[in-house]
Every structure is written in C-alpha cells, then in structure tokens.
Write a structure and sequence with these properties.
Layout: E1 3-7, E2 10-13, E3 18-25, E4 34-39, E5 45-51, E6 58-60, E7 68-73, E8 78-83, E9 92-98, E10 109-114
Parallel strand pairs: 2-10
Antiparallel strand pairs: 1-3, 3-8, 4-5, 4-9, 5-6, 7-8, 9-10
Length: about 120
C-alpha cells in the first residue's frame, strides 16, 4: 500500500523558512511524479509544486514561485519542500501526494506563520 508520511511543519515567523519532508513507501518512488498540495483555512486545495521522477521537470504555483523549492532523494524515497520568505497566507496544511492529482496523499503537516 502507498504510504506517505509528512513531517517538518510548525510555527515560523513572517519571512522565515521551513523544510517539509515526506517519507514514501509502498510503491516505486523513483518512477513516480510527486507533488505538494496545501489547503489554507476556508480555502480550496492548491498544488504548490510538482517534480518528475528524475527531477528534470519541476513546476510551481505562481503564488510560491521563487520562494518554495521542491526536491527529492530517490535513494531515500523522500520528497522535500523548502519554504522560504513565508507570508501569513502560507499558513496551511501541506500534503505530500503521489502523482500530480489529489488522490493518494499523506495525513498532512501544519504550517503556521506568525506575524
């Protein structure tokens, strides 16, 4: 079974940085596109980044471009999201997703930005 476990969330000050991790198992991680989604309170889902199996194709939502960086380590079957220059609107639950559509996902990790 696909298992995705996010970690690294927490409270960070406005303008600060955070790194999220997602430990993956139960599938061939090195062959899978992976994505990060987020959902802010009272708002819809937003895919913030996606990365191809060999990290050759990476896409970001306009709202995070230049501030967030997605990466992966196929030897460790782990996906990362580095968040920097965080703004209050960055407060959300962040989810690791197998593929590029909202389907198989982890339980999420909460990010809160304090002003």
């Amino acid at each position: 079974d696909v298992r995705l476990v996010e970690s690294g969330g927490g409270t960070v000050q406005f303008g600060g940085s955070l790194r999220l991790s997602c430990a993956a198992s139960g599938f061939t991680f090195s062959a899978a596109y992976m994505s990060w989604f987020r959902q802010a309170p009272g708002k819809g889902l937003e895919r913030v980044a996606r990365i191809s199996p060999a990290s050759t194709t990476i896409d970001y939502a306009e709202s995070v471009k230049g501030r967030f960086t997605v990466s992966r380590d196929n030897t460790k079957t782990t996906l990362y999201l580095h968040l920097s220059s965080l703004k209050p609107e960055g407060r959300a639950m962040y989810y690791c997703v197998k593929g590029t559509k909202w389907a198989e996902r982890g339980q999420g990790t909460q990010v809160t930005v304090s002003s």
